Amino acid sequence: MVETPVEPTAEDVELLALFSSQAAIALKNTRELERLRSGALAALGRMAAQVAHELRNPLGGLKLFAEYLEHRLDKVADAEGADVARKISREIDHMTELVREITQFGRPAALRRTPPSRVPVEGGIWSRLPSRSDRYRASRSRK
Question: What pTM does this model have?
Answer without folding.
Answer: 0.49
